[in-house]
């Protein structure tokens, strides 16, 4: 008969110490909300996906309230390609015509979300997938995207949404009943129209409204890098302004850093951009003193 029990990779004494070291963090964050942004680029490897799902379940089991907000940029891109379309981005926002909006809703609200829900459930959690429509969660309007260099100029990015308001009651109900909400970044407007919202923006706003203890943004890079490619472990608002102005921060990092900064300034205690390619990075970030990626400071 084969023994399915995985052999420990560390000595029992070291293992016991590691577990004991997690206790103060479990106590500190018990009952606290953690908003986790799971970026489309971080969810491409099945082994990493499984490690992510296990981390979410473990955090829930030790008494924290994880809320997952997922992206899916690369997955939308693949679906568009099949239709012969190529995505266009302005300042990190996908230009969203009516056909693209249909694809976004289909990919985010369908395939991507169901994969994450399935993984968490297989890992022993009770995940529930929601879009911003469910329970009236995310009310949005058309985004007016001001040019980053010339504030008198605006870009028309189609059905990209700006969040007007969030009604978190559906999330609190789910949390109270031990479910783990998995939110896709789609909002609804005054005439019931759909909006494509950048997932970083949604995660940051939810973290603020829920007054989360932490906002963790898992992406496909070590954190924010400087011009030389060195990791910046901490960023202040003035340094962020400089890095945006000189083009060091560009593309998808623009909405991420803007959302992270908004959340930090609005009372979310700890905001981190971390490398989702490192197995269990999230667990180490929450339950150990190891610092990962870039921490965003409010001042
Ligand atoms: N200064 C920077 N430091 C790190 N990444 C940056 C920077 N400027 C732009 N980026 C880009 O931002 C990307 C992360 O944003 P994005 O692709 O939207 O990820 P996600 O899907 O996780 O939201 C990185 O892979 C990198 O290409
Ligand atoms: C307006 C806008 O850009 N929306 C994003 C929504 C998905 C997302 O944010 O995915 P990632 O987190 O993987 O980048 C998009 O259409 O790609």
Automatic annotation (TrEMBL):
Domain of life of the organism encoding this protein? Bacteria
Keyword terms:
Amino-acid biosynthesis, Arginine biosynthesis, ATP-binding, Cytoplasm, Kinase, Nucleotide-binding, Transferase
MF-aspect GO terms: acetylglutamate kinase activity; ATP binding
The site (Transition state stabilizer) lies at 37, 256
The enzyme's E.C. designation: 2.7.2.8
- What GO terms describe the biological role, i.e. biological process, of this protein? L-arginine biosynthetic process via ornithine
Where is it mostly found?
cytoplasm
Q: Name one Pfam family in it.
A: AA_kinase
The UniProt similarity line reads: Belongs to the acetylglutamate kinase family. ArgB subfamily.
The job of this chain, per UniProt, is described as: Catalyzes the ATP-dependent phosphorylation of N-acetyl-L-glutamate.
PANTHER family documented for this protein? N-ACETYLGLUTAMATE SYNTHASE (PTHR23342), N-ACETYLGLUTAMATE SYNTHASE, MITOCHONDRIAL (PTHR23342:SF0)
Can you name this protein?
Acetylglutamate kinase
Q: What is the lineage of its organism?
A: Bacteria, Pseudomonadati, Pseudomonadota, Betaproteobacteria, Burkholderiales
Q: Which gene encodes it?
A: argB
């Amino acid at each position: 008969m084969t023994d399915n029990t995985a052999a420990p990779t560390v000595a029992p004494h070291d293992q016991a110490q590691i577990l004991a070291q997690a206790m103060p963090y479990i106590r500190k964050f018990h009952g606290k909300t953690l908003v986790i942004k799971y970026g489309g680029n971080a969810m491409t490897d099945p082994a990493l996906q499984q490690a992510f799902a296990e981390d979410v379940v473990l955090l829930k089991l030790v008494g924290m309230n994880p809320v997952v907000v997922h992206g899916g940029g690369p997955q939308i891109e693949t679906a568009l390609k099949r239709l012969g379309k190529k995505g266009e981005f302005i300042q990190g926002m996908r230009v969203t015509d009516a056909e693209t909006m249909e694809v976004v809703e289909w990919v985010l609200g369908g395939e991507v979300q169901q994969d994450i829900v399935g993984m968490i459930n297989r890992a022993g959690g009770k995940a529930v997938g929601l879009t911003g429509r469910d329970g009236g969660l995310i009310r949005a309007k058309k985004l007016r995207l001001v040019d980053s260099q010339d504030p008198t100029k605006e870009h028309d990015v189609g059905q990209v949404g700006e969040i007007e308001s969030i009604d978190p009651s559906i999330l609190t109900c789910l949390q109270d009943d031990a479910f783990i909400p998995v939110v896709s970044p789609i909002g609804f407007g005054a005439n019931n129209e759909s909006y494509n919202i950048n997932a970083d923006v949604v995660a940051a706003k939810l973290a603020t409204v829920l007054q989360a203890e932490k906002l963790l943004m898992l992406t496909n890079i070590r954190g924010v890098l400087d011009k030389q490619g060195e990791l910046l472990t901490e960023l202040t608002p003035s340094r962020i302004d400089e890095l945006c102005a000189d083009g060091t921060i560009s593309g998808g990092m623009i909405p991420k850093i803007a959302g992270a900064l908004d959340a930090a300034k609005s009372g979310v205690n700890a905001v981190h951009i971390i490398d989702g390619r490192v197995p269990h990075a999230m667990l180490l970030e929450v339950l150990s003193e190891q610092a990962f990626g870039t921490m965003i400071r409010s001042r």
